[in-house]
């Protein structure tokens, strides 16, 4: 029985013909086995081309490296009889903090020679085998010193055939423990505070009535008044199976001191040694064994939680090596020391992008702060701070203050380390796959990310405010009704077919889409968004609506006063339309729409009179005259269509906001609430600045209800209204559109051109598939951003899906949809 | 869409012979985007008028572009093409009156060779540059020009005039010349981004411009505009985002303009020179159609003292601003030669930066916000800079930079010293670390003030190069620029006084552990200070 770690690099060692490939194929998956012959074939088209060997091993090392970095067990099938070959593989394993195992297949020479002779591709005769065997013999004596964790030697064909492989779980792998946990920060001998904290957490003696498990982040000892007491308590809990503990640098040093090794007695070690000197020797021995046996870190709860004393970067999770242990115990030290003589630590958490939550201690701070899903619980209890616990999965912090300053800190406690909203280019650049909870992974292409980066960094509001971007919305399926391109019937049919019973039709305000992020107070803004201020109002591409947003934000905060009470929040994100259209799009309207109107108005009457003159001369101008007159009429309708959405604004006077959805507020991604809830809640707003959204609710199985909604839409659009949006009354999910728009006949002149009504047959052949797919993906990204925001995730985590929406929006689709 | 040509030469109906279109017939000519009709609203002996009416089907027009069209903007569908006298009208005119435009008339050749009293009317002529531009373009060709602006929207008089004019030209001109004038100048006046440039456009320009374009005072602008905006095709993704934001596409153009403000100079001269060169060697352009779009840019790099200096004739002088980057020659060749004093500001700035980098002993430099890569190119030409990197947020700017630096033809040794990549200064980025010096030349003023803190953290807190050079305009100096209203570049979010900049430099240096000084760049004014100020940061 050969026992190997679940994650390891298995190096097969044996001469040509020793049966390595057969052995590997019997015990491992084909994808786990990387053979030198295979690689030689890949780089030379000839598995036996020895001149390709260096290139083949380059490739082999590359493949092995990639697999190990991804945490995959890998078996190298090569002779590996020479020290140099094994050395390079051991180095590779070390580089990826993975243990290396050797399995030596030692068969008699004649067996190997015999096997080779039956293979036509191995016509190199006995000479090669003899040489390899000589190498192997020479190696066997000292292979155990190569650096393998274990060397498993199988002697003879029979032993090889009988061998079985068993897997050992990594020591740090406690993924089966799912909590709930109470993770406790650096205790440093503060027994009284620890007892109070456990009591505060609901512990009764060594157990918790809810079956919770305590997790200690290390540094139980030194500096404080009762390190033996703390050790005794923790050791009992561990023995009772209600606690686990990882090693802290102080345990490591104390253990070394107790083992009689030479250590510098500083940083509170003296106190521990003195206190332990008063304890019975059996206890000291047990404590030493306990401390000496502590592991660098634990991976818990299916891989979702990692606890290490000084934290751990993602590449080291579940790995085993000297440097992993060093990182876990001492942090990512730069080798420099600061003005207090303490090591300077590299801020690894700022760059942490892993999915697992990392909880640690080691560096005393005034208050624990989440940085990229990591948190440091060392709040300097022994220095007179407090002792902190994190309840997991609740993410709730529980603290007890220190009873006194037990030990003077040489260095003042550090405040929060960094601006948590500072984004890294790695969060957005290149082709990305964004995990969403509502639609799985969503791909963002590199070129779209590039365009989004430009717009985001040059024009968008501060990303801390930019917690959401609205998704695109597809129109209803094309109508076949005479004179119409879009009609409510198709929207109703679509949702009915998807099994939706009730939809809400909301008036589409013709303005500019706006997202309003509003905070009740600057303090609330600072707490939630990490930026002091009242809020921001921005466009679909994240641009601020006005150069100076403050007056608008101020008025809106005032207008939204009723929401604070109603929602029990001190901030809110609203999805709105800002009116009039001309307030934001003035330049576009003038340069594009009004220009078309002006050209038409200047040209068409002259064309008509020239044609009339020709007709007057008796020339047959055919249908051209009638058609040109028709165009003049259409051009006038076109002009009226855009002019309806323009009115002069003077500063903010004339600007109105029509909110139609409450996207998020404290602790809630309210976007998932039924639309009736949104409209009812928003109806609380009573301010001249706020325009209510007219709507009707439609029972899709009632022909009458449908007909009424159609009539409503007809009357609205006949008066020049943009149209309406039809949404399932409550969140559906899946492949069902979150809403479709049904635009009015006149409004569509702005989109399809003044004369579009003359070419409906051609225009009906429009393709909606891409737009609809984009709408679903962007919607999922938007919801993801809101969910992450509501759950209090780090700024970059919210930014990632928001950026994704902007990137997807740069995809080319028919802009008329 | 409508063009009328009238003559009062007697018998006026001879116009029919010259145009090869009978005055008593209505003739239709199919075009890919609709139909052109020629008819005569009047045809008497005294006066005869031919009308060319272009009936454009906008749906067909959009479709005729095909799937390969990179422009996915809405303006492709809702545009003035069915109404305005654009390049489409020019194309139709060239097609329908091909023989007349060549000056041939079998039955009345002497008439075709004679200048005739002509009146031309275009009711909706897009005219970017206003009625004066129509005057400037047509008057030198012997036309009396009446250009009446068209109001944008009568319901919104405050919106002012549209870009269209009602144009009436009258003069005694050979008909073929008149048609060629229109053929070339309609798209020039329109200056539309939808004017697609085919590889044979230079040829067409030369043929149609024979006999009059070479001596036209606005030749440079005509050439440049006729050949269109070269970058218009690269913008798909950005254009779409512009549209989403309800904004004209131009708003999202990179802060480094493709041909910066004093646009009608070097590049135009180069394009014109190119056009002339092509005329002399007509076989040259046949082999490499792709090269045409490139050449003018490449030409602009070549030192052309006549076009480069501050005295360069600019036909739109009011547009000239101090940041006349487009009008420069490549500084690398000039700066050693004592031309410094007369060099444009951007060149002086670059020299100041290069000299400071050398003085600081930097051997690896990253240019943050490298734009079109001028500084990167200058750094590469000095072997002491062993590693040179350029970063910009605009992929379009980087594409231009790659082309101007001739990346694809660069020898391996030089290429190995250079890294170009897209990035943004508001995101921390490992790729920014590891250089002796970082340069932010005219960059900070493009960042919104609330985002400056992030930039400071990214550059001074994270990348932490040994030296940082920051240049930015001195706003006090702006009063020296006669035609400048507002800031020096439309994308500038702010400009600082000397005191403001000094305070910023001191604060950033203190916060991130740098020592810093501020130096002047350019000829200082005794009261206002230098046009540009440079902060030199040295890490403690």
UniProtKB/TrEMBL annotation, chain A:
<dbReference type="InterPro" id="IPR032380">
    <property type="entry name" value="PNKP_ligase_dom"/>
</dbReference>
<protein>
    <submittedName>
        <fullName>Polynucleotide kinase-phosphatase</fullName>
    </submittedName>
</protein>
<dbReference type="InterPro" id="IPR050126">
    <property type="entry name" value="Ap4A_hydrolase"/>
</dbReference>
<dbReference type="Pfam" id="PF00149">
    <property type="entry name" value="Metallophos"/>
</dbReference>
<dbReference type="Pfam" id="PF13671">
    <property type="entry name" value="AAA_33"/>
</dbReference>
<dbReference type="InterPro" id="IPR027417">
    <property type="entry name" value="P-loop_NTPase"/>
</dbReference>
<dbReference type="InterPro" id="IPR004843">
    <property type="entry name" value="Calcineurin-like_PHP"/>
</dbReference>
<dbReference type="GO" id="GO:0016301">
    <property type="term" value="F:kinase activity"/>
</dbReference>
<dbReference type="GO" id="GO:0005737">
    <property type="term" value="C:cytoplasm"/>
</dbReference>
<feature type="domain" description="Calcineurin-like phosphoesterase">
    <location>
        <begin position="180"/>
        <end position="364"/>
    </location>
</feature>
<dbReference type="InterPro" id="IPR029052">
    <property type="entry name" value="Metallo-depent_PP-like"/>
</dbReference>
<keyword id="KW-0808">Transferase</keyword>
<dbReference type="InterPro" id="IPR024028">
    <property type="entry name" value="PNKP_bac"/>
</dbReference>
<dbReference type="InterPro" id="IPR041780">
    <property type="entry name" value="MPP_PrpE-like"/>
</dbReference>
<keyword id="KW-0418">Kinase</keyword>
<dbReference type="Pfam" id="PF16542">
    <property type="entry name" value="PNKP_ligase"/>
</dbReference>
<feature type="domain" description="Polynucleotide kinase-phosphatase ligase">
    <location>
        <begin position="451"/>
        <end position="812"/>
    </location>
</feature>
<dbReference type="GO" id="GO:0016791">
    <property type="term" value="F:phosphatase activity"/>
</dbReference>
Automatic annotation (TrEMBL), chain B:
<feature type="compositionally biased region" description="Basic and acidic residues">
    <location>
        <begin position="289"/>
        <end position="304"/>
    </location>
</feature>
<dbReference type="InterPro" id="IPR024740">
    <property type="entry name" value="Hen1_N"/>
</dbReference>
<keyword id="KW-0808">Transferase</keyword>
<comment type="similarity">
    <text>Belongs to the methyltransferase superfamily. HEN1 family.</text>
</comment>
<dbReference type="InterPro" id="IPR024026">
    <property type="entry name" value="3'-RNA_MeTfrase_Hen1_bac"/>
</dbReference>
<keyword id="KW-0489">Methyltransferase</keyword>
<dbReference type="InterPro" id="IPR026610">
    <property type="entry name" value="Hen1"/>
</dbReference>
<feature type="region of interest" description="Disordered">
    <location>
        <begin position="244"/>
        <end position="337"/>
    </location>
</feature>
<dbReference type="GO" id="GO:0046872">
    <property type="term" value="F:metal ion binding"/>
</dbReference>
<keyword id="KW-0479">Metal-binding</keyword>
<keyword id="KW-0694">RNA-binding</keyword>
<keyword id="KW-0943">RNA-mediated gene silencing</keyword>
<dbReference type="GO" id="GO:0003723">
    <property type="term" value="F:RNA binding"/>
</dbReference>
<keyword id="KW-0460">Magnesium</keyword>
<feature type="domain" description="Hen1 N-terminal">
    <location>
        <begin position="1"/>
        <end position="242"/>
    </location>
</feature>
<dbReference type="InterPro" id="IPR038546">
    <property type="entry name" value="Hen1_N_sf"/>
</dbReference>
<dbReference type="GO" id="GO:0001510">
    <property type="term" value="P:RNA methylation"/>
</dbReference>
<dbReference type="Pfam" id="PF12623">
    <property type="entry name" value="Hen1_L"/>
</dbReference>
<dbReference type="InterPro" id="IPR029063">
    <property type="entry name" value="SAM-dependent_MTases_sf"/>
</dbReference>
<feature type="compositionally biased region" description="Low complexity">
    <location>
        <begin position="268"/>
        <end position="288"/>
    </location>
</feature>
<dbReference type="GO" id="GO:0031047">
    <property type="term" value="P:regulatory ncRNA-mediated gene silencing"/>
</dbReference>
<dbReference type="GO" id="GO:0090486">
    <property type="term" value="F:small RNA 2'-O-methyltransferase activity"/>
</dbReference>
